[in-house]
């Protein structure tokens, strides 16, 4: 599976996106035919010696044209629009997507009915199966838009809008907040990874488990740094306890910070700001405002390089 992310309405990869693309082309062609027809009639009327007959214009432009062309476009558009899939919470996979300034909180319903499986800035779904998205916002109005898979749906505080999403082929699809929501609106991206159903189920089962890390001295030092530097005051890593408060780490949803439990398995960091690798991660921790000015994460410019590298190694190990 390629990690190249598609974000194009001209390359639909789902049933809803295919309908929207077809509608767009038909309306564009119909509009072009209408424009060219009017221009031809105008040119004929301006020819020397041609006598303008008002009745012809009234019958042609006022009756025949809307009756045939515009009515055909209206009927076709209505017919295809009602074929767009209706949101249904009965789909086997249910995902809550919550917009924050400027990242995405993703919650999967646990297959066994237990506590939600939480991650951030990345959705995974099984190829060929419709999934239900419950879209809402924790602060301002956002808008969910994955051009290759479906249309746009607004995310409004205090309300939940439903949406059905389906990918017909495996791949990585880029989504983007489509409603201006503040300084970093343009860098509020989301990646949707469509994978075969068996791979998706294996991934979901892994996400439901607490974090496990590779055993190495550097990773262990990074794990301690995560707690000592109070990263756990904002970010959750399931399986890591914070001795400073003697309780499990604070839930990210309560303080508007991404859950990092399986952070190392994600393709990008900072809601699509950069590819997720150790070098970018260390630079992000040191000063995230370089890559994403205004992001609500403080810089750690006073952290010594060895601790910074260890912390990046620890987060990278959270598969």
TrEMBL record:
TM region positions:
25-44, 56-79
Q: What is the predominant subcellular site recorded for this chain?
A: membrane
Residue ranges of domain Cytochrome c in the record: 217-319
The listed locations are: Membrane; Periplasm
The Cytochrome oxidase subunit II copper A binding domain covers 90-206
For this protein, the record's InterPro entries field holds: CcO_II, CcO_II-like_C, Copper_CuA, Cupredoxin, CuRO_CcO_Caa3_II, Cyt_c-like_dom, Cyt_c-like_dom_sf
Q: Which UniProt keywords apply?
A: Copper, Electron transport, Heme, Iron, Membrane, Metal-binding, Transmembrane, Transmembrane helix, Transport
Q: Which reaction does it catalyse?
A: 4 Fe(II)-[cytochrome c] + O2 + 8 H(+)(in) = 4 Fe(III)-[cytochrome c] + 2 H2O + 4 H(+)(out)
Q: What SUPFAM superfamilies does this protein map onto? A: Cupredoxins, Cytochrome c
Whether Zinc-finger counts among this entry's keywords is no
Q: One Pfam family name from the record?
A: Cytochrom_C
Looking up PROSITE patterns in the UniProt record yields:
COX2, COX2_CUA, CYTC
* Claim: Cell division is one of the keywords in the record: no
- UniProt similarity note: Belongs to the cytochrome c oxidase subunit 2 family.
Name the UniProt record assigns to this protein? Cytochrome c oxidase subunit II
